[in-house]
Amino acid sequence: ELKVEQNPLFLSMQEGKNYTIYCNYSTTSDRLYWYRQDPGKSLESLFVLLSNGAVKQEGRLMASLDTKARLSTLHITAAVHDLSATYFCAVDEGGSEKLVFGKGTKLTVNP
Amino acid sequence: DAEITQSPRHKITETGRQVTLACHQTWNHNNMFWYRQDLGHGLRLIHYSYGVQDTNKGEVSDGYSVSRSNTEDLPLTLESAASSQTSVYFCASSESGGTDQETQYFGPGTRLLVL
Questions:
Q1: Which end of chain B has less neighbouring CB within 10 Å, N or C?
Q2: Mean pLDDT on A78-98
Q3: Does the beta-carbon distance from A42 to B90 stay under 8 Å?
Q4: Interface contact A98, partner B, CB < 8 A
Q5: Are B6 and B69 spatial neighbours (Cβ–Cβ below 8 Å)?
């Protein structure tokens, strides 16, 4: 059974600082997704990572995938208040196109 | 523009009643999914479908059913609503193929309260 763990679950950081959110998963998969959710809203797709070593960047966010370590990271550079949200990673279960989600990381960026 | 919609957006019902949540997508995607989101649990898969007439159980399917009679719709039915089914429900869809652009697109969600 695929399990997906994110850490930290809560992250409070100052504007301008850097930080990394980690996503570990328990069984082999080479398809991983990152989503953002604002309070009371739906999930917005951020990144799709489809192979080992994949790296994607959008603005102040950069995601990477290491399938051998079963680890993905979401790195935040020079955080700004607008990045405050909950971030989820999700892993495709054995190529089935079903996603197993982590519990999410609630990020708060303080001025 | 293609989209995925859910209705109703908010629903209050009583225990024991049957409730149906609608999901409609205009992406022409083969895959459709229902999730529930609860504090401390993230999103959990209820049911999913890979195409017309195909339905499958997810991690938390007890008490729920779905049917897929066309590509665009996957309604979720709570056979006899229970207080434990109070949650936010999200519908999602995706295309098959594993391309770089493939992802699941989520609807706006339905907040269900079972009293």
A1: N
A2: 92
A3: yes
A4: yes
A5: no
Q: How is the beta sheet containing A55-58 ordered, strand by strand?
A: A4-7, A19-25, A71-76, A61-66, A55-58
Interface contact flag, B107 A42, Cβ < 8 Å: yes
- Which residues are CB-contacts of B29 (< 8 A; sequence separation ≥ 6)? B71, B93, B94, B95, B105
* Cis, bond preceding B108 (omega within 30 deg of 0): no
Across the interface, which of A31, A100, A104 has its CB nearest the CB of B98?
Answer: A31
User: Which of B4, B29, B96, B103 best tests the A interface by mutation, with the highest count of A CBs <10 A?
Assistant: B103
pLDDT at A25: 95
What's the burial of A80, exposed, middle or buried (CB within 10 Å: 0-12/13-18/19+)?
middle
Given an 8 Å threshold on Cβ–Cβ distance, is A42 in contact with B42?
no
Which residue in chain A is spatially nearest to B95 when comparing CA positions?
A: A97
* Residue in the block written with tokens 């996603």: A99
B53 sits in the region (left: phi over 0; alpha: psi -120 to 50; else beta) called left
Q: Which long-range contacts (CB under 8 A, 24 or more apart) does B57-66 make?
A: B58/A98, B58/B33, B58/B34, B60/B36, B64/B34, B66/B34
Tell me how far apart the alpha carbons of residues B79 and B63 are, in angstroms, rounded to a whole number.
6
Query: pLDDT tens per residue, chain B (115 residues)?
Result: 789 999 999 999 999 999 999 999 998 999 999 999 998 888 999 999 999 999 999 999 999 999 999 999 999 999 999 999 999 999 999 987 656 567 899 999 999 999 9
Contact: B107, A95; criterion CB under 8 Å: no
